[in-house]
Design a protein that fits this description.
By secondary structure, the protein is an alpha/beta fold. About 30% of the residues lie in helices and about 20% in strands. It has twelve helices and 20 strands. A hairpin with a 2-residue loop joins strand 3 and strand 4. Helix 3 crosses helix 4 and helix 5 packs across helix 6. It is globular, with a radius of gyration of 22 Å. The chain starts with 20 loop residues before the first strand and ends with a strand. It binds guanosine-5'-diphosphate, 6-O-phosphoryl inosine monophosphate and magnesium ion.
């Protein structure tokens, strides 16, 4: 008899893993403040896991007055020593990752616990070129038809994954023979953007050597952590309304950005998930094209953009700004099964904004009929006119508040309205980018 080695005899014991994991997911169009929430909740968890998206994400975290911008590395990396996992569902641009790693290392951040899935797909240079090329063609064909992507090669890389044949996974970077074949085929398939085959191959092999020590079968790596009784925190990238299935298609990204992306993106079963924290910005923002029903084109929008520093972390583009859309948030809470909400950037609406009244979207008028259902399709949503309720403006600055009771009644009423409308409790309120500027309930 040959002895069979098992990583852990507990691996398949459901009692060790049921409901122990937490997910952080965005309830809007991204940039809700997921990075800050992940940084905070990392304290209560043993490992942090990215499961979707790629370097299109930009998560800013402020620790001790220092700002860190993370694109591919889980925000948990700022809490030294905890395993941070880039799961198989991520499309990984090794060049961007290595630059990000160097930047963090030079600032004294410990990267020893960063682990990468061998099955994550590699964003190759021709994917980025193709992303830009497609956008240009669409823009030329009809202004406004382009997605307004981050040009990080996200769509072409996920497409290659689904197409198969020429896709390169992280594990392939360590297999020169296979890599050579894949790159040769890919260069044929992507001939329009004229990739330099020799250069691409050389680059990919170099990436592989640099990443080799971190590459694992992360499905087993994560199962083993669970078997040891460790708790996992999943860090969603992008936002639910950018989900390729449930967002405002076609103006979305190319992955499942909500909890549904966790399972294919990690290899873990749904039973691991207990807590689902929906991250809600106190108003709406969107980068790129596509409908934003509550969009503000006036001075109020300008004030919120300035106070909220609403410029993209990844591309620097000014973010479009609008009133809080609770129809959209309630829909996202439903899609994700949010067990609680965290309301971020509430301080932006404080007295200094000069906003005496705050509008909140509570319905859409579609063809003369008012509905509280979110039409998750760009064409349908374009035809939806928001129906607003007006609430009192927040009559003080609140960045120094540290408990719910310290918040003025107007701010408490705003939170109460969100809870009542969505039916989901708000357990965290953020009143500034710093770790300490957080109210928990
Ligand atoms: P993410 O992509 O969801 O992680 O969000 P981003 O990091 O792209 O954008 C959120 C921005 O708001 C970052 O610059 C954060 O530092 C900042 N931020 C987070 N929470 C708060 C808050 O409560 N108040 C203010 N003023 N800024 C915040
Ligand atoms: P985080 O994780 C905001 C948007 C892009 C574009 C669309 C498709 O920081 O919340 P892509 O490059 O993914 O093909 O672009 O999705 N987008 C985001 N907007 N925050 C993000 O990530 C985003 N990731 C993608 O602006 O409209
Ligand atoms: Mg962001």
């Amino acid at each position: 008899m040959t002895a069979v080695t098992t990583a852990s005899s507990l691996t398949n014991d459901p009692r060790t893993r049921r409901g122990t994991a937490t997910a952080i997911v965005g309830m809007q169009w991204g940039d809700e403040g997921k990075g800050k929430a992940v940084d905070l909740l990392t304290r209560d968890h043993d490992a942090v896991v990215r499961f979707n998206g790629g370097a299109n994400a930009g998560h800013s975290v402020v620790v001790g007055g220092q700002k860190y911008k993370l694109h591919l590395i889980p925000s948990g990396i700022l809490s030294a020593g905890k395993p941070c996992v880039i799961g198989n569902g991520v499309v990984l641009d090794p060049g961007t990752l290595l630059t990000e790693m160097d930047g963090l290392a030079s600032r004294g951040i410990d990267l020893s616990a960063l682990v990468i899935s061998s099955r994550a797909h590699v964003v190759m240079p021709y994917h980025k070129d193709e992303d830009a090329r497609r956008e240009a063609i669409m823009r030329e064909a009809e202004a406004g038809s382009e997605i307004g992507t981050t040009k990080r090669g996200i769509g072409p890389c996920y497409a290659e994954k689904a197409q198969r044949g020429a896709a390169v996974r992280i594990g392939d970077l360590l297999r020169p023979e296979i890599l050579r074949e894949r790159v040769a085929l890919a260069c044929k398939l992507h001939a329009e953007v004229r990739p330099d085959q020799a250069q691409v191959l050389e680059q990919a092999l170099a990436w592989g050597e640099k990443l080799r020590p971190r590459v694992r079968d992360t499905a087993y790596f994560l199962q083993d952590l669970l078997a040891q009784g460790k708790s996992l925190l999943f860090e969603g990238a992008n936002g639910t309304l950018l989900d390729v299935d449930h967002g405002t298609y076609p103006f979305v990204t190319s992955s499942n950005t909500g909890v549904a992306g966790i399972f294919p993106g990690t290899g873990l079963p749904p039973s691991v998930l207990g807590r689902v924290v929906g991250i809600v910005k106190a108003y709406s923002t969107r980068v790129g094209s596509g409908p934003l029903p509550t969009e503000l084109h006036d001075q109020t929008g300008e004030v919120i953009r300035t106070r909220g520093h609403e410029f993209g972390t990844t591309t620097g583009r000014p973010r479009r700004v609008g009133w809080l859309d609770l129809v959209a948030v309630k829909y996202s809470a439903m899609i994700n099964g949010a067990t609680e909400l965290a309301v971020m950037l509430l301080d932006v609406l404080g007295a200094g904004s000069g906003l005496k009244k705050l509008r909140v979207c509570v319905g859409y008028r579609v063809g003369g009929v008012v509905t509280d259902r979110f039409p998750a399709d760009a064409a349908e949503l374009e035809g939806a006119e928001p129906v607003f309720t007006e609430l009192e403006g927040i009559d003080r600055e609140i960045a120094d508040c540290r408990s719910f009771d310290e918040l003025p009644a107007s701010a408490r009423a705003y939170i109460g309205f969100i809870e009542t409308y969505t039916g989901v409790p708000v357990r965290m309120i953020s009143v500034g980018p710093g770790r300490e500027q957080t109210i928990t309930r």
